[in-house]
Structure formats: structure tokens, C-alpha cells
């Protein structure tokens, strides 16, 4: 009788086996086909560590309409290369892997010849779920200004006042940048991506025998003609970084730049105008030239007002790089 009853005692018990491949597949879909959440006005990659509990999902795509095309800014934040945001193992488990089981994981992304991005645990030799996805990563566009092209304005001076006040500016027109006829993968998106301006060959384009000094008096941002109130004297902020030959400076000035070859300005999202259709932002470099007191010759200086947008020789537009992502779950 006992032998007859034993099979019935265990009839309702089955061995539970986890399909790790299914979990790896689901995780890869979230990473490679979803922009994460929040995704719109304040996308998750712009959150800091203090507010990371407000992040629901850690998807990496530019948008929900661009599967397998990843945002470089999202990738940077996801692999903990963003100094403002630090993700823990628990964050990865609850915001990208999901489920009640505390899975172990190893997620890697290789982009071209760059060093591999990796997060997670050391993978075992076997018994894990695996998924590999071919992806593309969007490289953001930027402006690269050659000093020889813009050091062509000329003027006259007097012996009493051997100075010329000049300016160089770039205009970010929201309507042009957000041209809906251009695919998101190749579109400037300043509400989500950084914008950068590099002026090179600055000192080499000057006439050394004519120029005594060049002072960068200040850099200012204006929205629709009105100066934006910022803490221009701060180095560390969420808005910008400015470098002279690789050394960080503020926008406040004044600073001597006669011997500077490279001026680099980086502006971080979201740009303060990015949600206002029809608005524009102007980035202006104000300079003061002091020339040797020779009134008989023309004195050349750097100046100009150019758009930051599509189709210009000095602009490098957004592009895509090949990559592959591997997800291991166990």
C-alpha cells in the first residue's frame, strides 16, 4: 500500500528549470530596442546618482523608433563612465534584467576598435544564457573651426588706441537642428546630446609681427538675443566645459590667448532652449586685440558669425559606428 501511494505523493512536484537564454534575450531587447524610461524631456541618462531611483528602465537606443541604434550618452551612463551617475548591481537587476530572481549577469559592448565596455560579474564556463546583438552607436556631431578661415577681418587703429574689439559666434537654430526630414540617427539632438566647438590653428593664423596680445574677455550664451544668466565663473557645472590648449578655464575671462592654438567649448544637454520651438541659442566669444602702433597697415583679426547645423564644411555631422553587444545571464 505504501509503495502504491509514494508516486501520488510527488505527483504535484516538478523540477523548476530557468530558461536563462530567454532572460538574456529579454534583457538584450530592453537594451537594444528600447530608449529606457524616462525617455523624453528628461531622459534617464541625464539623471544623477541622487535621483537614480526615478529611473525605471535602462534602455540604450536613441528612441523607440530606432532599434539597435544606441545613444552614446546612454552607453556612457550605463557602463558607469558618467561622473554624475553611478549604477549598482541592484540597479542593473531591477532596471534592465527584472524578475524576482537575483540573476548574475555580464553585459559587454564593443564599439569598433575602442576598449570593450563591461559591467557585471565574471561569467562561469557554462550553464548561462547568452545573446549577442549587432548594433550601431551614434557619434554626435560637432563644429571644428580652422583659424585660417576666420582670421580674415581687418581694420585700422590709432596710436592712442591700438585695439580692435572682435567677436566670434555660433548660432544654434532649434528649427534647423530638429529637421524632421533627417533621420534621428543622423540628426543633431541638443536636448539629449552634447554640442562641441573646437577652434584650432588660432595662434598660428595670427600675424606675430603685428599682434601684441589677444585677450579673450568672456564667453556668453544668449537666447533670442538675451543673455542667459549662468554662473560663468564656475569650473564645475552641468552646462559647459571650456579648455584652452587642454587646460580648463571658465567663461568669465579675461585670459590671454595669443599663444593658444586650440580653444574647445563643450555644452551639455539639455540645452536651455531645446524645448522651445522656434528659439535659437547664440554662443559668443568676445576678444580684444592689441596691435603694434602702425597706422599705415591693415590689422587682421579673428571674427565671424556662423550657424551650427547641416551642410557646412566646418561641421562634422552625426554618424554611426558598428558595434556588438553580448548579454550573459545565469
Summed up, what is this model?
This protein is α+β, with helices and mostly antiparallel strands and 330 residues long.
Q: How many separate domains? A: 2
The total of helices stands at 6
Largest sheet: 6 strands, mixed
The neighbouring-strand order within the major sheet is: 12-11-14-8-5-18
Structural category is alpha+beta
| SSE pattern, N- to C-terminal | HHEHHEEEEHEEHEEEEEEEEEEEE
Rg calc: 27 Å
Give the strand tally: 19
Mean pLDDT across every amino acid position: 90
- Shape descriptor reads elongated
Q: Report strand %.
A: 25-35%
Considering DSSP H and I runs of 4 or more, what fraction of the residues is helical?
A: 10-25%
Low-confidence sequence ranges: 6-15
End-to-end Cα distance, whole Å, is: 43 Å
Provide an overview of this structure.
The chain has 330 residues and is of the alpha+beta class. The chain folds into 2 domains: 17-139, no CATH class; 142-316, no CATH class. The chain is 14% helix and 34% strand. The protein has helices at 2-9, 20-33, 72-78, 89-97, 147-150, 174-177, and strands at 69-71, 105-111, 117-120, 129-139, 142-146, 153-155, 163-173, 195-200, 211-223, 226-227, 240-244, 247-249, 255-256, 263-267, 280-291, 299-301, 304-307, 315-316, 319-329. The protein starts with a helix and ends with a strand. Residues 6-15 have low confidence and may be disordered.
Amino acid at each position: 500500500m505504501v509503495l502504491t501511494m509514494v508516486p501520488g505523493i510527488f505527483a504535484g512536484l516538478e523540477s523548476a528549470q530557468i530558461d536563462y537564454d530567454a532572460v538574456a534575450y529579454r534583457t538584450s531587447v530592453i537594451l537594444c530596442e528600447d530608449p529606457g524610461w524616462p525617455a523624453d524631456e528628461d531622459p534617464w541618462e541625464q539623471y544623477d546618482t541622487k535621483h537614480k531611483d526615478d529611473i525605471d528602465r535602462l534602455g540604450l537606443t536613441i528612441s523607440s523608433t530606432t532599434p539597435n541604434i544606441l545613444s552614446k550618452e546612454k552607453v556612457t551612463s550605463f557602463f558607469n563612465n558618467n561622473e554624475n551617475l553611478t549604477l549598482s548591481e541592484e540597479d542593473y537587476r531591477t532596471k534592465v534584467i527584472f524578475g524576482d530572481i537575483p540573476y548574475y549577469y555580464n553585459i559587454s559592448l564593443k564599439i569598433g576598435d575602442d576598449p570593450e565596455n563591461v559591467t557585471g560579474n565574471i561569467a562561469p564556463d557554462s550553464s548561462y544564457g547568452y545573446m549577442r546583438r549587432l548594433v550601431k552607436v551614434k557619434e554626435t556631431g560637432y563644429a571644428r573651426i580652422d583659424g585660417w578661415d576666420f582670421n580674415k577681418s581687418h581694420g585700422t587703429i590709432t596710436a592712442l588706441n591700438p585695439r580692435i574689439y572682435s567677436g566670434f559666434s555660433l548660432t544654434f537654430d532649434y528649427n534647423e537642428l530638429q529637421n524632421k526630414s533627417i533621420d534621428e540617427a543622423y540628426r543633431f539632438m541638443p536636448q539629449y546630446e552634447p554640442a562641441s566647438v573646437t577652434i584650432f590653428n588660432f595662434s598660428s593664423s595670427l600675424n606675430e609681427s603685428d599682434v601684441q596680445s589677444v585677450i579673450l574677455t568672456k564667453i556668453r550664451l544668449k537666447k533670442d538675443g538675451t543673455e542667459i544668466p549662468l554662473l560663468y565663473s564656475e569650473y564645475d557645472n552641468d552646462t559647459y566645459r571650456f579648455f584652452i590648449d587642454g587646460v580648463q578655464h571658465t567663461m568669465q575671462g579675461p585670459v590671454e590667448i595669443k599663444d593658444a592654438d586650440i580653444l574647445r567649448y563643450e555644452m551639455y544637454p539639455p540645452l536651455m532652449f531645446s524645448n522651445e520651438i522656434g528659439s535659437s541659442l547664440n554662443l559668443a566669444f568676445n576678444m580684444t586685440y592689441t596691435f603694434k602702433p602702425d597706422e599705415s597697415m591693415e590689422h587682421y583679426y579673428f571674427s565671424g558669425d556662423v550657424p551650427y547645423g547641416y551642410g557646412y564644411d566646418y561641421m562634422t555631422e552625426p554618424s554611426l559606428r558598428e558595434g556588438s553587444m553580448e548579454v550573459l545571464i545565469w
